[in-house]
Amino acid sequence: MKLIKYFFLSLTLLTASITIQAQQKWRSDANIIGHVVDQDGNHIPFANVSIVNTTIGTATDETGHYRLINLPVGHHQVKAQFLGYKPQIVEVELKGNETKEIKFQLQEDVLGVEEVVVTADRNETNRRESSTIVNTLTPKLFATAQVSTLSEGLNFCPGLRMETNCQNCGFSQVRMNGMEGPYSQILINSRPIFSGLAGVYGLELIPSNMIERIEVIRGGGSALYGSNAIAGTINLILKDPINNSYEFGTGNSISGIGVDGAGDPAQDYTVNFNASVVSNDNKTGLAIYGFYRDREPFDANDDSFSELTELKNTTIGGRVFHRFGTRDKLTADFFNIKESRRGGNKFDMPEHMADIAESVDHNITTGALAYDRFFRDADKLSVYASGQHVVRDSYYGAEQSLADYGNTKDFSYTVGAQYNWHFLNSDLLLGIEDVGAWLKDKKLGYPDLEDPNFTVEDGPYIENRIVADQETNTLGMFAQYEFDINKLNVSVGARFDHYSIEDDAENSSTSGDVLSPRITLKYDIVESLQARVSYSQGYRAPQIFDEDLHIETSGAKKIIHENADDLKQETSHSYMVSLDFNRQLGNSYMGVLVEGFYTQLDDAFANEFGEPDEDGVVIYTRVNAEGGATVKGINIEANLVPSDKWEFKGGFTIQRSEYEEVHELNETRFFRTPDYYGYFTIDWDPTKKLCVSSTGNYTGSMLVPYNESVLRESDPFFDFGMKVRYTIPINGAKLQFYAGMKNIFNSFQDDFDTGIDRDPAYIYGPALPRTLYFGIKLGNMLK
């Protein structure tokens, strides 16, 4: 760690000296003014206008006009871009005390092949030119599918499927290419700061209005992002201040409308806001966001126990940037999430007075700093640090137990630096990164009411008990070299990690060194058709994982997850091949992606079920499966835009995930993993004011364990929804009304286990029953 500290101190002193020199040359009175319009001459509000290879940028106002002042003199490239349009670059020669006018006319990028992505190579690149396929989930999708939180949007991406794993507390995870949640790396602004503790419920914690976009890469990402990126990475890009804007919205949904045999429908209220402000000289900007949610529990089978948890969420955060000069920029992020959730019964009583209660209170605080500096023409240095502190109070208990209150504290951090070196037709990326975490989980003490000598004044009491006290650290160095040979693009990279895991509760430690290589070939067969082939290696260290921090509870038993003493790291070998076709056909646009994947897991992690002890506690022990496992399949994505009024997107996955030898319950197949699943979205926009949307999610049958002894095969599900929204222009702003219904046909699980002895893990299928929703939005950036 001392080496890392000295490294960052040196970089700080270097950038400070560069900054002082840059400030001296800041004011030149060389200015650019202009506007941005579409191919029909309509002005585009809030389009980005920037000087290439600098940190200088702004956005057009509500009328589509912009200005850039006090620019450095000399030759520059000025770029205009906006979501849904192809970027345009104009060359300009600037002189001091001179103002030039540049007008941009952008052409539509209906299929999104020209959009900028950052996750593929840890650097901004054009999606078409990216060596790796990157899927982007945007606010337009959030509006189409009425996405309130991150978890609700991930079903609309090829190879991804959200699933709920606990009937009591609503614990959920995302499966990517058939592999469960811990095989995917969740990133925030490209940093692996999303801790294991936050990840237990985190996908439902993060509101969609704090997210600018989500970038998804399937396939092994350990060569760039470290451990647990075997299935892929999900990168959350937070809102950035680019203009003076605001948006406010409130909505209500009612789950369980017209569901036979269910309890009362459950109300779900949400309120959200976003605002940003940028200084007149575009040197400083601030964006803030907030979200509030209050959801009632829902009982799907009227047995007095909930299937949807009670939720209360309050989120507030923001991002601020400042440019010291024309080629450097400092950015700071902060957000705090306070969420409480509870499932079970007797919600009006303390947890230990209920028959079953699984209750969690989260307080998550996250902060990050990033400094970017351009050198030469296009080289870029990035230095960053981020941290996340999580405090969780929990109760996982049944039959009025006092012994099941807990408290967990976790701090995770990432510090690193990377340098992107551009020369001729190639790019070299070099970086170093240190990722660490401290986690302490304890059961809280309680009065020993069974002791005949117990008195309120002097006890006796059962003392606090440490369940886990783990410290992890991974120091990684990574490199990637990318070059072009005519139509062929070659990207070769590797990451070397040294990880160490100390568990004071178990008095154990483990460490390892891992080299994770990656190679990708992209060939432009023709301008509209690209082929990609890749190989990557990844790993998962034998640490505490997300689901280990969740305890399934019933009146009869309690399930706790543990690692075997001799657990070895899991290693993956991932192969992917794809064809990506995007072309305009007359007045229509068509995009088709076909992607094959094959992953070999060596020393694959699997569970062994223990027998209940005298207290009803069942241990799930994570072991290395004999013979490993394989995951293979095909992802298909289609994007069809027949006119400017219609848009269709859809995806389907055919896959198989299984161990090479018989394992749990005498079965080789992965549980809770359907062989077929997919989605679609349809938007019909007949006028500038009215939009009608339709969405669908298909989930094929899957094997689901029941009470650790029986396997059941589920029925397939089709979750179909519709939404109507109407937008009214008001004095430069927009007022929008919307209403819709999710899961119209109530394709929902109908065989939930019942009563106090129910198996809470026997849950599958769509997350919501039939749900009616409606709301209103007001702002100057509404879509």
From TrEMBL:
Location(s), subcellular: Cell outer membrane
Alphabetic keyword roster: Cell outer membrane, Membrane, Receptor, Signal, TonB box, Transmembrane, Transmembrane beta strand, Transport
Domain (TonB-dependent receptor plug) ranges: 128-233
Secretion signal, residue range per the UniProt entry: 1-22
GO BP of this protein: siderophore transmembrane transport
GO terms assigned for molecular function: siderophore uptake transmembrane transporter activity
Keyword Transport: yes
Membrane-crossing segments per the record: none
Membrane topology: Multi-pass membrane protein
Residue ranges annotated for the TonB-dependent receptor-like beta-barrel domain, each copy included: 306-744
CC terms in the record's Gene Ontology section: cell outer membrane
Main location: membrane
Similarity-based family: Belongs to the TonB-dependent receptor family.
Protein name: Outer membrane receptor for ferrienterochelin and colicins
Annotated source species: Thermophagus xiamenensis
